[in-house]
Design brief:
Length: about 400
């Protein structure tokens, strides 16, 4: 792609000491493709590029690809570019096929490779194409602009499609959200921020929304696949849960806000012990403290200096537990840490509202390490609730 295409007057973004390149969303691609196709249909002229102003106010100049014109339709594509963000949709061609309508209402729908919503709780109603409200409005605005600029009456219909979208969607959160058949057309700002924490938090919130919309009042929460796999060993294989990644605090706050009265957190010790130190963003880049937590509680439980030092120098939770096992302090230290975890989790939940939060802590090496007093009751409650995948 020519260097003249992309973000115009791009603001510099620096993270961890290096400059990162922003990209553009599937929503921006769909809107630009729709404009190019509309202009092709109405004028018969192909566009090399489309200039688009995003909802954030940043201008894009996007290359138009694969333009085709028939008697009744025009079809154009724009390639998705995720910038330096690890984006599953990077490189996909986002197509818009535009046709005339004998009405005053502009229409936007999804074709092959664009998912359909099957569960309530999302910003798009069940049965509709997974084209979120902001991108949908962007596409409609570009269709209207094309009609106004060419002086053509009537309205237009755009069908957005993504070759390969169904395969790519399997690597996204869409299956968990009940979006089937393809990717979502997304983007509230029109711009992809590299390694955007906000985007991941928004996805976690969507996951929580759909579980709540299905009627659940108790929520199973795990940081990731380790927790999910361990939950299955406890009889929760067919119980739908939310994955909170490293954003445990954000997920708890939002679950309470959405009205969940009970939360069961199932997490690996490597993540969960950080909350004993009040750390609720558990990414090691943000905060760690695992060794410090184990060492401090080992000292509180009577470990000698050499043991505390060995625990402090452990690089994993399992390694710390192994040291404690050699002197018979593993049970006492884990119970001490668990007491602080319980205190901090409940304080976080109570600060957000009224919710009971219980937890089960495990390790891959040693299996279940601790379950809070109310965890058994909440396990049974989740199984009775039966809000499955």
């Amino acid at each position: 792609m020519s260097e003249t295409f992309g973000l115009l007057s791009e603001p510099i973004l620096v993270q961890d000491g290096r400059e990162l390149r922003r990209g553009w969303t599937t929503g921006s691609c769909a809107a630009a493709a729709a404009r190019a196709a509309a202009m092709l249909l109405l004028t018969g002229r192909k566009s090399e590029a489309v200039r688009l102003t995003t909802p954030r106010g940043i201008e894009l100049l996007l290359e138009v690809l694969d333009s085709t014109l028939t008697e009744t339709t025009a079809r154009c594509a724009v390639r998705k570019d995720g910038g330096d963000d690890p984006d599953a949709t990077h490189g996909l061609l986002i197509y818009a096929e535009v046709s005339r309508l004998d009405s005053d209402l502009f229409e936007v729908d999804g074709g092959a490779g664009v998912g359909r919503v099957t569960r309530p709780g999302l910003s798009v109603p069940v049965g509709m194409a997974a084209i979120n409200p902001v991108p949908r409005r962007m596409i409609e605005d570009e269709l209207r602009r094309a009609c106004a600029e060419t002086g053509c009456g009537g309205a237009l219909r755009a069908v957005i499609s993504v070759p390969g979208g169904e395969d790519v969607a399997a690597r996204t959160f869409n299956p968990q959200l009940g979006i089937v058949g393809g990717i979502s057309i997304l983007g509230t700002s029109g711009i992809v921020e590299p390694m955007s924490e906000r985007a991941l938090i928004d996805t976690i919130r969507l996951d929580i929304d759909t579980i709540r919309a299905a009627g659940a009042s108790a929520l199973l929460m795990t940081p990731g696949n380790y927790g999910r796999d361990f939950a299955e060993t406890l009889g929760l294989a067919d119980i739908r849960g939310a994955k909170c990644s490293n954003f445990l605090g954000e997920a708890i706050d939002y679950a309470v806000y959405r009205g969940f009265s009970e939360i069961l957190l199932i997490a690996h010790a490597g993540k969960l012990v950080k909350t004993a130190a009040g750390v609720f963003n558990t990414h090691s880049r943000t905060a760690d403290g695992r060794a410090e937590v184990f060492a401090a509680h080992a000292a509180l439980c009577g470990a000698d200096t050499d043991t505390v030092r060995a625990v402090f120098e452990s690089v994993t939770a399992d390694a710390a537990i192994a040291v404690l096992r050699t002197c018979g302090l593993d049970g006492a230290v884990i119970a001490s840490i668990a007491g602080k975890i319980a205190q901090n989790l409940r304080r976080r939940a109570e600060a957000a509202g009224i919710a009971q939060i219980e937890f089960i802590m495990f390790s891959n090496e040693y299996g279940e390490l601790f379950r809070s007093d109310g965890a058994d009751r909440l396990l049974s409650r989740l199984k009775e609730q039966r809000i499955g995948d």
